[in-house]
Amino acid sequence: MSNLIPSGSLRRMLLPPTYGRHVTSATEFTILSVEVWASGLVVNIHLPSDDAPEPRLVLQDHFGTEYTLQESATVASRNLQVFAPSVPPGTRSLTVRSADDADGRLVVTFAVPLMSVPETQPDLEAAGRGSSTEADDESYQPDLRRPA
How far is residue 13 from each of residues 47, 131, 137, 143, measured CA to CA in Å? Predict the structure, then answer.
């Protein structure tokens, strides 16, 4: 399942304002979180049982960004759905809607904290730390892991 994780760094973890079970004609589910990665989004979903069908979701932001489902994986009662692209800088909200409902019923809306422009490697020489080599710049890789 590690190939399911988007590339780049984990930028934010969005938690819903409340946790509630969403019921559609096809399934029941609870959105636990949305991970904002540099290259995409991971929606973490709890299903009522191991054999419950996956929900069909649609993501929207106030810019009108088109989020496309890339992959989905279910292990026991947990479902992860990966969407691309990531949220653009300046995004204030992210809405999850159910595509299982004919009217695309609202599931949850997340407030997206202000995020800076995409991360760049710091210039150590300009920061007054002396000269740096290309090997030094590439040596630091953050160790980010998914919660169990």
Answer: 20, 35, 27, 16
